[in-house]
Amino acid sequence: MPLFPAFIDLKDKRILVVGGGKVATRKVQKLLPFGAKIEVVSPRITKELQRLFLAGKISWKKRKFLIKDLRSAYMVVVAVDSIGLQRMVFNYCSKRKILCNAVDSPDYCNFIFPALVHKGDVVIGISTSGKVPALSALLREKIEECIPKDVDKLLEEAYRLRSSMKKGKRRQRVLKEFLEKRM
Ligand SMILES: C[C@@]1(CC(=O)O)C2=NC(=C\c3[nH]c(c(CCC(=O)O)c3CC(=O)O)Cc3[nH]c(c(CC(=O)O)c3CCC(=O)O)/C=C3\N/C(=C\2)[C@@H](CCC(=O)O)[C@]3(C)CC(=O)O)/[C@H]1CCC(=O)O
Ligand SMILES: NC(=O)c1ccc[n+]([C@@H]2O[C@H](COP(=O)([O-])OP(=O)(O)OC[C@H]3O[C@@H](n4cnc5c(N)ncnc54)[C@H](O)[C@@H]3O)[C@@H](O)[C@H]2O)c1
């Protein structure tokens, strides 16, 4: 069954990341630009996570995961090579309606990370519903090639234009013409 792409407001939401390796680092880098409050729990973390921790961008509990870490989390990412831990966290989260991503098994995810094109407020998410992530990555590269390099600036210009006009048929027409000329 395909997964529905919903765009979630993560500003100030508490996100727990279990594990501090390569994959956890990629997930943290993906989440940070969206304003989440990220807490990593892991005995060891990568150099990049250490840099983010020292810069005050994330918090870090230097120890193994404990079940109490899940309390009040909005979203959890389990990036540890243990299917037992992933299953346990997923079951806990499912009962409490917490969003859970287990990096080793789509079966233990109630949301997955898409491949992302992110330029300003333009966000394109690509997924294969968990089937072949490498295809998502390839599709992202193709999409990056064919959209305007400055699509973020185009959005801001179009937004200013849109905000300066009353809603209605005329605004729809003007916006469509404005965008078509620049694509
Ligand atoms: C899109 C992207 C986003 C991101 O990570 O942020 C992403 N994986 C990426 C790359 C990638 N991941 C893997 C490879 C190696 C090739 C391969 O094995 O296939 C490559 C390719 C590469 O590195 O180029 C290995 C892998 N991934 C998962 C498993 C477990 C499994 O499938 O059972 C295993 C096996 C682990 C093992 O070896 O044991 C699972 C998931 N990976 C997902 C997302 C979710 C589904 C996305 C979708 O619906 O398409 C899901 C379900 C959960 C999740 O992670 O959210 C990112 C590309 C970012 C970009 O370039 O833009
Ligand atoms: N979903 C994806 O996109 C994707 C892509 C590639 C690999 N993977 C899978 O992701 C998993 C993690 O990969 P990695 O390269 O980051 O591994 P890694 O070994 O570099 O990192 C594991 C991290 O987990 C920490 N850890 C171990 N036990 C812990 C515990 N009980 N509590 C808290 N932290 C603990 C370790 O200190 C380490 O920081 C692997 O199982 C791999 O197969 C997923």
UniProtKB/TrEMBL annotation:
GO biological process: one example: siroheme biosynthetic process
InterPro entries: Met8-like, NAD(P)-bd_dom_sf, Sirohaem_synthase_N
Family matches, as SUPFAM superfamilies: NAD(P)-binding Rossmann-fold domains, Siroheme synthase middle domains-like
The keyword Iron is assigned to this record: no
Keyword list, A-Z: NAD, Oxidoreductase, Porphyrin biosynthesis
Pathway: Porphyrin-containing compound metabolism; siroheme biosynthesis; sirohydrochlorin from precorrin-2: step 1/1
Cross-referenced Pfam families: NAD_binding_7 (PF13241)
Enzyme Commission no: 1.3.1.76
Reaction(s) the record says it catalyses: precorrin-2 + NAD(+) = sirohydrochlorin + NADH + 2 H(+)
One Gene Ontology term of the molecular function aspect: ferrochelatase activity
Top-level EC class: oxidoreductase
NCBIfam families: cysG_Nterm
Protein name per its UniProtKB record: precorrin-2 dehydrogenase
Naturally occurring in which organism (per UniProt): Thermocrinis ruber
